[in-house]
TrEMBL record:
<comment type="function">
    <text>Vesicle trafficking protein that functions in the early secretory pathway, possibly by mediating retrograde transport from cis-Golgi membranes to the ER.</text>
</comment>
<keyword id="KW-1133">Transmembrane helix</keyword>
<dbReference type="GO" id="GO:0031201">
    <property type="term" value="C:SNARE complex"/>
</dbReference>
<dbReference type="InterPro" id="IPR045242">
    <property type="entry name" value="Syntaxin"/>
</dbReference>
<dbReference type="InterPro" id="IPR041875">
    <property type="entry name" value="Syntaxin-8_SNARE"/>
</dbReference>
<dbReference type="GO" id="GO:0000149">
    <property type="term" value="F:SNARE binding"/>
</dbReference>
<protein>
    <recommendedName>
        <fullName>Syntaxin-8</fullName>
    </recommendedName>
</protein>
<dbReference type="GO" id="GO:0006906">
    <property type="term" value="P:vesicle fusion"/>
</dbReference>
<feature type="domain" description="T-SNARE coiled-coil homology">
    <location>
        <begin position="144"/>
        <end position="206"/>
    </location>
</feature>
<keyword id="KW-0175">Coiled coil</keyword>
<keyword id="KW-0472">Membrane</keyword>
<comment type="similarity">
    <text>Belongs to the syntaxin family.</text>
</comment>
<dbReference type="GO" id="GO:0048278">
    <property type="term" value="P:vesicle docking"/>
</dbReference>
<keyword id="KW-0597">Phosphoprotein</keyword>
<keyword id="KW-0812">Transmembrane</keyword>
<keyword id="KW-0832">Ubl conjugation</keyword>
<feature type="coiled-coil region">
    <location>
        <begin position="175"/>
        <end position="202"/>
    </location>
</feature>
Length: 234
């Protein structure tokens, strides 16, 4: 029996996350040894973006399977936990990648400007206001808050899906009851129709017998009259 496609996709994304972690480790090693990690950084950015998109596809697939009741509620909850774990790992990988990259770029900028100001680094002009002045620990805390907010949203979505499932079950039960009522009415109509047909046949049979008896009575009376006339003395 082949494995469920959703589970296969989840396993593939777990392997992708492991590959990203290994590439980040290799990138860090190259940085420490004075190598040029530009190429591996490009690969990491593409892989992280792909992992994010794949997780979104896993969410959509789980929502469709749960809404159509192709899987049980217990299995839906288990798969939601798998998505949550993978989502947390993806956020951690992003934080590690961006944290290490920001630290390296700031160090290079300081070397190029004689340690005057990191603001002169052209690679930092896209930094957001929320992340300016934050340490690596603060960035990790910020990422954790984002993950918690997303977890809360997923829990709310799970609650909505659970309510929809209950509503679907109630509608299904109501339809079953209505179908039973319709079946009972159909049986009643069939029984009534059969009774009417039987009574109609009985009435026709009685009419036929009555007509036959009446005819014989007339014949007998005629015969009696003929005999009477024949034997009666003139």
């Amino acid at each position: 029996m082949s494995q469920d496609p959703w589970l296969q996709n989840h396993e593939a994304n777990c392997r992708l996350a492991q590959e990203i972690a290994e590439n980040i480790h290799e990138r860090n090693r190259q940085q420490k040894t004075g190598g040029n990690p530009a190429k591996i950084n490009m690969t990491l950015r593409a892989s992280l973006q792909k992992l994010k998109q794949n997780i979104s596809q896993l969410k959509e697939g789980l929502l469709r399977s749960s809404s159509s009741r192709r899987i049980t509620q217990a299995e839906a909850d288990r798969r939601q936990n798998l998505i949550d774990d993978l989502l947390s790992r993806e956020k951690q990988l992003n934080a590690t990648f961006k944290g290490e990259a920001s630290g390296t770029e700031a160090h290079r900028s300081s070397l190029m400007t004689g340690g005057t100001s990191a603001a002169a680094n052209p690679w930092l002009i896209n930094e957001t206001e929320e992340s300016k002045g934050l340490s690596f620990g603060d960035l990790k805390q910020q990422q954790r808050q984002i993950i918690d907010a997303q977890d809360a949203g997923l829990e709310a979505l799970a609650a909505v899906i659970s309510r929809q499932k209950i509503m679907g079950q109630e509608i299904g039960n109501e339809l079953d009851e209505q179908n039973e009522i319709i079946d009972d009415l159909a049986n009643l109509v069939d029984n009534t129709d059969n009774r009417i047909r039987n009574e109609t046949r009985r009435v026709k049979l009685i009419e036929t017998k009555s007509a036959t008896c009446g005819m014989w009575v007339v014949i007998v009376l005629l015969l009696v009259a003929i005999v009477t006339v024949a034997v009666w003395p003139m």
